[in-house]
Structures are given as C-alpha cells and as structure tokens.
Specification:
176 residues; mainly alpha; 2 domains
C-alpha cells in the first residue's frame, strides 16, 4: 500500500533498479561519456554526472537535483564520503533511467523529440520565447486541471491536461 510520496517514489525506483548490473551500466553509459567528451571515471562527482547527463544524454538535471535524489534515497546506494556523493556506474544508469522515465529532458533536445507529443513540443517552443501555448491557463485552477486529468479516458486529452498542469506549476515556480 502506498501511504506517502516516499512510498510511491521507492516503488518506482525499485522497478528501475531491478535489472541494472555493473557491466550493463558501463556499456549503457559508454555512448553518453563519448557524446559528452568526458573520459569515463567511476565513482564520479555529482557535477560530472550532471554534465554527463546534460551534454551526453540530453537530460535536464543539475548537481543539486542529483544530490537531493541521492540524499532522500530516490537513487539508492550512492556513496557518501568526505561530504560529497560519489556515483558508480550502476547509480548513474539508474539516474539516467529515472530521468528517462520521468521525462527530465532538456527542452527541444533532438534526442528526445520523438518521445514528446505535439502539444509538449509546441509548449517548449513557446517557453523558449517566454510565452505559453495555453492562452487561457490563468483562467483555470490547478484542482480543475488535476480533475480533468483524472477523469479523461483519452490519452491525448490526458497529455494535453498534463502539459497544461506542468506549465502552470512551472509558472508558479513549483517545478523546474
């Protein structure tokens, strides 16, 4: 039974962790190290992992986000020594999968565009121009967006409302 956000996050992370081993992680991360033009080195500092994921993988993460995920256990078993987190290949692959699953994509990064809906791409383009594609976003409250999201049986409609909700939360400073 899920009683808290921590419970839900733990279940989600456990699913991501289940099939990751050291050899597989090293192989899976190799193209990212190459694309980022960084020599693979384990364990890696949070700043290095953020650069690897940003440049090599097109994921929108910061060292602070990584540190927060490690601190609360969202990404398990990240070594903490000398006041810093040290990321092994397995933990980096888990965080890469986490970013993929929860769509922490850099806006309009070509490596991830095929995973986005038309409304998500339209909204990202509008955001780059300092605007939103939802002209009436301020006219609808967050609770209504969540309710519409819950009630819709159509995936495209749910995606529309989810994108509108994320835009509203971003605008309020509640999410990145």
């Amino acid at each position: 039974m899920i009683n808290s956000w921590a419970d839900a996050a733990k279940i989600s992370t456990e699913q991501l962790v289940a099939s990751v081993d050291q050899d597989m992680a090293v192989v899976a991360l190799s193209p990212l190290w190459e694309a980022a033009d960084i020599l693979p080195a384990y364990p890696a500092a949070s700043a290095t992992v953020a650069e690897l994921l940003n440049v090599g993988g097109g994921y929108d993460v910061t060292p602070e986000m990584l540190t927060g995920w490690a601190r609360v256990g969202t990404i398990p078993e990240v070594l903490f020594r000398g006041g810093r987190f040290h990321w092994g290949a397995v933990q980096i692959e888990i965080v890469r999968r986490y970013c993929e699953t929860f769509r922490f994509f850099k806006p309009l990064d070509r490596r991830h565009l095929h995973k986005l809906s038309a409304i998500q791409i339209e909204e990202m383009k509008a955001n780059e121009a300092g605007k939103t594609s939802f002209a009436d976003l301020d006219a609808i409250d967050t609770r209504s967006l969540v309710t519409m999201l819950e009630l819709s049986g159509d995936a495209a409609v749910r995606n529309y409302f989810a994108t509108a909700l994320m835009t509203k939360l971003r605008k309020a400073g509640a999410v990145r």
